[in-house]
Design brief:
The chain contains eleven helices and four strands, in the order αβαααβαααβααβαα. By secondary structure, it is mostly helical. The protein has a two-stranded antiparallel sheet.
Length: 171
C-alpha cells in the first residue's frame, strides 16, 4: 500500500477528505511493519485500547475480509460509524455496531451464551460464572419482549437506545 491510502470512489464514509487524510496519517503511524494493514498487536499500541476487553471483538467486526488484520478501507469503514456525521446518515449505526459486538455468530440475535461470553470478556474474574450467569439470565428476561429466549436488534435498541451510549461512542 505504501503512502497511497486511497479508497474506492463508490465507498461511502462519514468523513470528508481532510478527515480521511488525518485518519490515513494515524493509520500509517499504527502500521508499524508497513504492510498496509493493522494487526491486533499494532492496534494494541494505542494506550486507550490497552484496558478495553472488547478490542478483539471490535477488530473482528472491522476485519470484514476475515484475514486477521484491518486494512485501510476496513479501518475507514469501521471508524466511519463512530463519526458524529454518522448519526445523521443512520441514527442506529452505533447501536447496530454495539449489537454486533454481542451477536458473535451473526444470526441477528444475542443468545444467552453470547451475552455470557461478551460479559465474561468485560468482567474477567471479578465475578463467579454463576453470578455472571444470573445477570445474563435476568438481562435476557428483561429485554426479551417476544419470549423467544434471545434478544433481537429491536429489543436491544429498546433497552440500550434509551441510554446515552450512542452519544458516547464518537470519533
Amino acid at each position: 500500500m505504501g503512502n497511497n491510502f486511497t479508497l474506492p470512489e463508490d465507498m461511502v464514509t462519514n468523513f470528508d477528505q481532510d478527515e480521511i487524510r488525518r485518519l490515513a496519517r494515524r493509520f500509517k503511524k499504527l502500521d508499524m511493519d508497513g504492510n498496509g494493514s493493522l494487526s491486533f498487536e499494532e492496534l494494541m499500541s494505542l494506550p486507550e485500547l490497552h484496558q478495553n476487553p472488547l478490542v478483539s471483538r471490535v477488530l473482528d467486526l472491522f476485519d470484514t475480509d476475515n484475514d486477521g488484520e484491518v486494512n485501510f478501507k476496513e479501518f475507514i469503514s469501521g471508524m466511519s460509524m463512530f463519526s458524529v456525521k454518522g448519526d445523521e446518515a443512520d441514527p442506529d449505526a452505533k447501536l447496530k455496531f454495539a449489537f454486533r459486538v454481542y451477536d458473535m455468530d451473526n444470526d441477528g440475535f444475542i443468545s444467552n451464551g453470547e451475552l455470557f461470553q461478551v460479559l465474561k470478556m468485560m468482567v474477567g474474574t471479578n465475578l463467579k460464572d454463576s453470578q455472571l450467569q444470573q445477570i445474563v439470565d435476568k438481562t435476557i428476561l428483561y429485554a426479551d419482549k417476544d419470549g423467544d429466549g434471545k434478544i433481537s436488534f429491536d429489543e436491544f435498541r429498546d433497552v440500550v437506545g434509551k441510554t446515552d451510549v450512542k452519544m458516547n461512542v464518537v470519533v
